[in-house]
Amino acid sequence: MKRLIGKLLLPAVFLSFFTVMIYGCTAFRDVKTIYSGFPRKFGATYMTMNNPYFDVLNDGIKEVVEANGDFLITRDPAQDQEKQNSQIYEMIELGVAAVFLNPVDWKEVNPALIACREAGIPVFNVDTHVYDTEYVVSVIASDNYNAGVQCAQDMMSKLDSADIVILDQPIINSITQRIKGFTDTIRGNKNYNVILQEAAGGELEIAMEVMNRIIDSGVTFEVVMGGNDPTAIGAVAALESRHVDKKILIYGVDGSPDGKMMIKEGYLEGTSAQQPSVIGTIAAEVAYDYLNKEEVKENIVVPVTLITKDNLDDFTIDGWQ
Description:
alpha/beta; Rossmann fold; six-stranded mixed beta sheet
């Protein structure tokens, strides 16, 4: 993959000219788009901007885009797929060169993907998969399945048996893959039992509400597996507010500054760290490669690393990986 950061732009006299030629065939990946004239507009929409993870991911994209003299339009659908689809339709009307997409609902985003194909606008899928990947040029995401595996393996190394609560979010494929990695790892071992599995929205406030209801139900458990760090921290907040004294191992996924601080203070057992800035940078570079008619990979997997108190000193607390 060739890095395009720092490439010389066309002289300013040409900046006002923008022409687009599109010619294609039946498959989206065969559509060739030729751009002459700068600056170009790019669009980005994420499931929510209520999670700082997406701010960091967006900054990774934005840095590359602006280094090329172009600019990025970023939208927040606030967990509303209908709103996200509308944002994508707006981006099409604005004539963006490409869309970076993190879907709210991996299936219900499909009409917007079809609209992008019909408009000849390439889509680069970041962080969590869309259901119909044929409509996107490339998927750039963490090794979400392995993140769940890492959390399960750490739990099993510390507890001989456990009743487990899982806080997931079925419409978000990245979280689904993390939970699958976790449950596949413990499958067949009767010492580890998932007693409850509930959707928690992928957000701290929702996870706290869900965990409060679970506590009120009177069930007992030794482990909470959260689909991401905000979910895990929401579980911590509920348990602390209810003054639950029993030691419970709580896991998240992200490697966020808040997650690492919770590990340092003894509230969180571990978080499988993603690299949102790296994901964003790679996604933007892939987009420029594609627009330059270079061959790009359809699936790019970014490794994850489990952070616990044992290796916390190897990471900066107040930053992302």
